[in-house]
């Protein structure tokens, strides 16, 4: 095992990928990764005592930072069911799969997200206040190294040396495209709101993720890995939106961002590709709005460097009765014989210095632009409440990126929450209501808890009845009083903690929401950039 107690990555080191020229990794370890996929074996042939040893779809173990890690991982079935379209070719993903899980010895205080490639795990681990990142050593260092080696480091050890900006949101762009809309005295061009009697319903924004041909080439024409990258951005935004209290009632609203389709352009000559030759971010967004689609949001990521420092842009709906079109649920609009789709946003993963940005930056940029599409303006720079700065940092909709990740960076400010709530209520007609699904690991609807199935509940929350429990037990209900995972008022033995009250909370949490969203890349010359987020505000 190699250990670098203060190993600073510098641009002039020959053994370091050039991507790290803008990144400082203060401390990391290179260790062996051991993985096992029980799902590949027929457990009916195993003795019962052997079957019980393997309680997950995949298991990973390694030793780093003077301790052992034993990860229990469960497949993310939504990812495997995605439709991936390459122009006219459609297929399902084949070689990649997502996992969510826990650290076995710290089940209630941990969350893991990642995937396996050639039996090497890439992902992140969140334990209380510590976030560990894991990636293949082969993508971390240029020098030849054993393919089974992984690099492990912590969030506090990663420093981004440069700062990028977000441009002002694009309600102005919408106004430039449709200058007469301001004078209209009807709102026939705007989507309608959700039904008032359904305010307690959980809603989903079904989105399309698009990759242009420059991003496809950057990922060495590997569609599966590129699909992982796109899906990660949506999952990161999903976590932030789910756990946010937009309506101010004190509970998370569980607004979900779900990828419905992934579209990948392979060449500049592909059909239905109006933004192929866009020269700047504005023209890229405006050209992208010409592309035919029918989703709550359609979002495109690219690998294009522009002179301006902005990395993302989107059409923002305005929170007033008579407004320009744009944002979530906006249906197509004809202008001078041309049909446009203004439920769109774009982000480039390359800054104006032609450097690939850390994944933490592109994920925050993506979620920032999603915030615009849901109606949030930028947080006022000098606002004491919505742009407080300090040790906890500024909120997600602050107009500039941060060189060091801070807790507030992945949270919407009070200003943003109020604006987004108005748009959801008044323009969110395409948001899909979703009933609670017992067993998906997310507490929804009238569920008391949701720990998945038996093999996961034994580690995630033994006080919650698993979805595959036998009668008379009912899945997704408390076995004894209440759950320590759903309420601080309960202890690990499922009894009441007198110091913390007597009731369960309505907080809808999942394995992912409790602690972390993580991200990973398996692309040469591009290292993983991961970031975890908590399920509650700072």
Write up what this structure looks like:
InterPro entries: ADAM_Metalloproteinase, Disintegrin_dom_sf, MetalloPept_cat_dom_sf, Peptidase_M12B. One of its GO terms (molecular function) is metal ion binding. The chain is an alpha+beta fold and 538 residues long. The protein contains eleven helices and 22 strands. The strands form four sheets. Strands 1-3-13-12-11-10-9-6-5-4 form a ten-stranded antiparallel beta sheet. Strands 7, 8, 15, 16, 17, 18, 21 and 22 form an eight-stranded mixed beta sheet that branches. α6 crosses α8. It starts with a strand and ends in a 23-residue tail after the last helix. The model is unreliable at 1-22, 41-53, 168-175, 178-187 and 500-538 (pLDDT under 50).
Features:
538 residues, alpha+beta, 10-stranded antiparallel β-sheet, 8-stranded mixed β-sheet, 11 helices, 21% strand
State the major sheet: 10 strands, antiparallel
Flag low-confidence runs: 1-22, 41-53, 168-175, 178-187, 500-538
Helix content: 10-25%
Strand content: 15-25%
Q: How many helical elements?
A: 11
Helix/strand-derived category reads: alpha+beta
Overall 3D shape: globular
Tell me the radius of gyration: 23 Å
Count every beta strand, where a strand is a DSSP E run of 2 or more residues: 22
Q: Give the rounded overall mean pLDDT.
A: 74
End-to-end separation: 36 Å
Instruction: Classify the oligomer.
Output: single chain
Q: Please give the order of strands in the largest beta sheet.
A: 1-3-13-12-11-10-9-6-5-4
């Amino acid at each position: 095992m190699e250990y670098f107690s203060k190993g600073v990555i510098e641009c002039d080191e020959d053994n370091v990928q050039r991507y790290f020229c803008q990144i400082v990794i203060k401390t990391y370890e290179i260790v062996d990764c051991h993985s096992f996929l029980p799902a590949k074996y027929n457990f009916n042939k195993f003795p019962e005592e052997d079957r019980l040893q393997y309680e997950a779809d995949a298991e990973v173990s390694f030793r780093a930072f003077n301790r052992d890690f034993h990860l229990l991982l469960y497949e993310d079935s939504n990812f495997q069911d995605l439709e991936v379209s390459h122009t006219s070719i459609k297929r399902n993903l084949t070689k990649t799969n997502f996992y969510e899980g826990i650290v076995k010895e710290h089940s209630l205080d941990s969350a893991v997200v990642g995937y396996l490639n050639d039996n090497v795990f890439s992902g992140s681990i969140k334990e209380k206040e510590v976030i560990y990142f894991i990636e293949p050593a082969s993508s971390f260092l240029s020098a030849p190294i054993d393919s089974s080696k992984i690099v492990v480091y912590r969030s506090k050890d990663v420093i981004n040396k440069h700062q990028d900006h977000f441009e002002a949101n694009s309600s102005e762009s919408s106004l430039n495209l449709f200058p007469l809309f301001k004078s209209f005295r009807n709102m026939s061009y705007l989507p309608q709101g959700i039904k008032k009697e359904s305010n307690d319903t959980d809603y989903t924004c079904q989105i399309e993720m698009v990759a242009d041909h420059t991003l496809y080439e950057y990922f060495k024409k590997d569609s599966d890995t590129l699909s992982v990258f796109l899906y990660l951005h949506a999952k990161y935004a999903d976590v932030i939106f789910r756990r946010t209290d937009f309506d101010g009632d004190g509970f998370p609203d569980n607004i979900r961002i779900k990828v419905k389709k992934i579209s990948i352009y392979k060449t500049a000559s592909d059909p239905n590709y109006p933004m192929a030759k866009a020269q700047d971010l504005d023209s890229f967004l405006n050209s992208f709005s010409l592309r035919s689609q029918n989703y709550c949001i359609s979002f495109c990521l690219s690998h294009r460097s522009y002179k301006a420092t902005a990395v993302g842009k989107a059409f923002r709906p305005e929170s007033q009765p008579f407004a320009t079109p744009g944002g979530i649920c906006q249906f197509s609009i004809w202008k001078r014989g041309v049909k446009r789709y203004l439920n769109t946003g774009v982000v480039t993963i390359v800054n104006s210095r032609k450097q690939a940005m850390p994944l933490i930056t592109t994920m925050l940029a993506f979620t920032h632009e999603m915030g615009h599409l849901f109606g949030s303006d930028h947080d006022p720079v000098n606002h004491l409440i919505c742009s407080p700065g300090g040790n906890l940092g500024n909120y997600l909709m602050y107009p500039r990126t941060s060189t060091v990740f801070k807790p507030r960076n992945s949270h919407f400010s009070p200003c943003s929450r109020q604006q987004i709530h108005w748009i959801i209520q008044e323009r969110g007609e395409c948001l899909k209501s979703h009933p609670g699904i017992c067993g998906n690991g997310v507490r929804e609807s009238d569920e008391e808890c949701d720990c998945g199935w038996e093999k996961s509940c034994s580690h995630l929350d033994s006080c919650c009845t698993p979805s595959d429990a036998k009668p008379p037990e009912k899945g997704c209900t408390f076995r004894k009083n209440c759950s320590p995972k759903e309420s601080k008022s309960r202890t690990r033995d499922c009894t009441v903690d007198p110091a913390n009250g007597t009731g369960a909370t309505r907080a809808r949490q999942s394995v992912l929401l409790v602690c972390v969203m993580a991200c990973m890349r398996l692309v040469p010359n591009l290292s993983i950039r991961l970031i975890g987020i908590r399920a509650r505000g700072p």
